[in-house]
Amino acid sequence: MTKRLVEIDDADLDAARAALSTSTIKETVGRALREAAASAARRREVERLLDGSSALLAVGEGRDRAWR
User: Fold this and answer.
1) Contacts of 62 (CB under 8 A, 6+ apart)
2) Does residue 10 surpass a pLDDT of 90?
3) Domain ranges across the chain
4) 3-state secondary structure of 64
């Protein structure tokens, strides 16, 4: 783990702390970073599902290859 010196707006920190139910700065920042990464991963998955490419897995050879 690397120590970093950053400036954090107090209002943003308080808002994040309240939203995440955390008590320390370290916990709040760590949880916020993990939540941001998870949110981006969920967004990518939704975009992948909505683009129609997963429909190819429902039929034929694509389905067979996907389930092997």
Assistant:
1) 56
2) yes
3) 10-67
4) helix
